[in-house]
Amino acid sequence: MASSTSTPVPTRRSVTVLAGGVGGGRFARGVRHLARQQDLDVTVVVNTGDDLWLTGLRVCPDLDSVMYALADANDTERGWGRAGESERVSAELTAYGVGWPWFTLGDLDLGTHIARTAMLRDGDDLTRATARLAARWALDVTLLPVTDDEVPTLVDVDRPDGTRDRIHFEEWWVRHRAAIPTHGFVQQGVERASVSAAAAAAIRGADVVLLAPSNPVVSIGTMLGVPGVREALAAARGPVVGVAPVIGGRPVRGMADVCCAVVGVEATAAGIARHYGARRDGGLLDAWLVDEVDADSAAELQRDGLRTRAVPLWMTDDDATADMARAALALGLEARGA
Amino acid sequence: MASSTSTPVPTRRSVTVLAGGVGGGRFARGVRHLARQQDLDVTVVVNTGDDLWLTGLRVCPDLDSVMYALADANDTERGWGRAGESERVSAELTAYGVGWPWFTLGDLDLGTHIARTAMLRDGDDLTRATARLAARWALDVTLLPVTDDEVPTLVDVDRPDGTRDRIHFEEWWVRHRAAIPTHGFVQQGVERASVSAAAAAAIRGADVVLLAPSNPVVSIGTMLGVPGVREALAAARGPVVGVAPVIGGRPVRGMADVCCAVVGVEATAAGIARHYGARRDGGLLDAWLVDEVDADSAAELQRDGLRTRAVPLWMTDDDATADMARAALALGLEARGA
Known about the structure:
The structure is a homodimer of 338-residue chains.
Chain A: E1 13-19, H1 22-38, E2 40-46, E3 52-54, E4 57-59, H2 61-70, H3 88-95, H4 107-121, H5 126-135, E5 142-145, E6 153-158, E7 164-168, H6 169-175, E8 182-187, H7 197-205, E9 208-211, H8 220-225, H9 229-234, E10 240-243, E11 246-247, E12 250-251, H10 256-263, H11 269-276, E13 287-290, H12 295-303, E14 307-310, H13 318-337
Parallel strand pairs in A: 1-2, 1-9, 2-5, 9-10, 10-13, 13-14
Antiparallel strand pairs in A: 3-4, 6-7, 6-8, 11-12
Helix pairs in contact in A: 1-2, 1-13, 4-5, 11-12
C-alpha cells in the first residue's frame, strides 16, 4: 500500500576511493573522517598488484595497509605494518631456510595472512575474505580488492651481469628499493582477469569517485590495467576526481618518481594529470586536485579544459586529509553539476 | 683393486624406533643418548594419525613433538610444544574468528607449520619436508613419518544430545580430554594409504626395532594400521622389542588406559603385550620390556613364550631412558640371536 503522503527517504551520498597501500590508507582515513561529519558511505577499492604467495600464504600488502590504517592498528612510526609488531615466526622461517629473509612477515601481520589464506583455501574469493577480515575491525568503510583474480605485477630488470630478469614487484620494491636498472612492469595474467563485480558497482554507482594520491603507475595504474576498471570509470554516475600524488615534483611518499620514469610519465602534478587524461579528451578525470605549490600547473591544466583546484595536499593528520577530501568532493560535484 | 690384506669395515648397527609424540620424543632422546655411546644409527618412525589441516596449515603434532624433544627445543615444564613459546598469532586468528580457539598454535610452533606447509605445497612429500625441517636442528637421528599419505584418526563419539558424531582425534584429545562417550577410532582413507618407502626400509633393515612406550592404540596402533607396516615388521631383519607404555596398570603419560578401554584392550603390561602378540603366535613381538613393578606379568608372559625382562621404565632423564633402550636392545638381540 503506497502512502499518499510519503516523502522520499534521503539517500546517503556515496564516495568510492581507488587506493594503493600506505598512502591510500592515510587518504582513506581522511575520507572516513569527512564521511562521519557528512554522513557519507565510503568504499575503498584497493590495488592487488603487489599481492603474492609467500611460504604458502596469500599476502596482500595494499589491502592490509589500508585495513590496518582504518583500524588504527598500523605502525605510524615505522610507516607500515602493524603497531606493536614482533617477528618471532619470521625468525623461525629463516632458520628453516624458507621464505624471503628480506621480506619480513610480522607475527600480528601473519595472523591476517594465515586467516586470509584459510578462507581462500576454503573457497572464499578475495572480496569475501577481505570482508570477513575487515569485519573484525569495524572500519566504517567497505574495503574491496579491485579484482578477485591473481594479477601480480612483475618487473623487468637487469641482473648485475647485465642479463634480463623478471621479478615480483615486492622483490623490486622491498629488496632492491627500485634502485636497479628497470625496463617495465608486466601484469601477469591480466588478460584473463576482470574487475570484481563489487568493485565495478562501487565505481559506477558512487556519487563521487576519488583517485587517492597513490602511485600512478604501480598502484592506480595497475588497477586501471585490470579489464573493466576503465570501463567502470567511464560509465561512472558521479565525477572522477584525482588527487595529485606529487607535490612540487616530489612524491608524497613512496617512489612514484622512479615508477613514472620507467613508463615515461613526467612525475609532476601536471604530467600525471595528462597521463590519466581529461574525460572530454577520452581520459578518466573530471577534476584534479593539486597542492598549492603546484598552483601554476593547476591553472595550465584548467586552460586545457580540466577542472582543477590547488589546496594543501600534505596528509599530516586526519583533519588535514579530510579537508583534502572535502575539496576533492566539492570540485567533483562542481565539475559534473555545474 | 682388492687388497689381499683388507679387513672388513665394521658396519654401524642400526636401531629403528616406532614412536608417538611427547613420550616417543622422550624415548627417542634416550635411544640417541645410548647411540652416542655405542655408535648406533637411529631412525625414528613417527605416527601421523594426529596430523591435521588447521587454518590452511599442515600440523603434525607427533612429528613436531619428537623433533622438538630431539632438538632440545621442547617445553619440558609444560610437557608439549616449544620452549619459550608465545601466542601472538593465535590471538589474531581468534580475533578473526578463524581456527580452533581450544587448539593453541604457538608462534614458534607456527614457524614449523608454515615452513612445512610451504614445502608440501611446493611439491615435497611429508618425508622430504620432515627431512628439510629436521636438517635445521642437527638431530643426529633420522626422523620419518610412517606414511606420506593423509590418514587422519577420527573418533566416533556421542554428542551431548546422545546422537553420534565423528570428530578429529585432536578435537577428542585436546578439546574433550577424551572424556566423552567414545565408541571407536577410524583411520580415514587408510585403505588407499601405504607405509612410506623410507619407513618400510628402516623397519626391515634395522638391527633392532623398538616400539616406544607410546599409546598402543592411537600412536603405535595407528601406525600398525597403515598398510605395509605390519608386513615390514614381519619381514624385519632384526628383532622387534616393545617397551610397555603402562607401569603397574597406569599409563606412563597420556591416556593409554582410556584408549585401550575404547578398543577392549586390557591396559596392563601383559594386556598390551598380548594385544601386539608374540611373533611365534603370528604377532609382532620378539621381546617385551616391562617395569620392575610388573615383574609378575613378565614372568607370566615368558611362560607363554615371549622373551621379557623387567627393568625401571620411568623416563626421568636421558640416562635412565638410555638404560631402558640398552636393556631393550640386549633383550632383542638375545631373543633373535640366542
